Write the structure tokens for this entry.
Amino acid sequence: MKKLLLVLFSLILFGCSSNYKTVNVETVYKAINDNSDVVILDVRTLEEYNEEHIPNAVNIPIDDIDTIDIEKDKTIYVYCASGNRSKMATNELIDMGYTDVYDMGGINNYPYELEK
């Protein structure tokens, strides 16, 4: 919780990273179906992830985002429930040196099949 508050405070104080990018769900869906070498990152809690998630998504809750162990130049699509945590996580990943990170918003906007 402290980490989440720190990230939120940093966003308010310093604004969003200049490298912040978004991606639409159609692009993510196409990447998944084309077997593209991308990471779909779910930053919700494990309980939320277990209820349903995008196929092949990796779950790293936002409070644990600093434990991520993915190559810095890997394409990463980040999502959460509504888009708030994904935005914070995307900015934090950029600040950590990740170069190809996209916020796809919330799973609520993902109209395709989900895994349970």
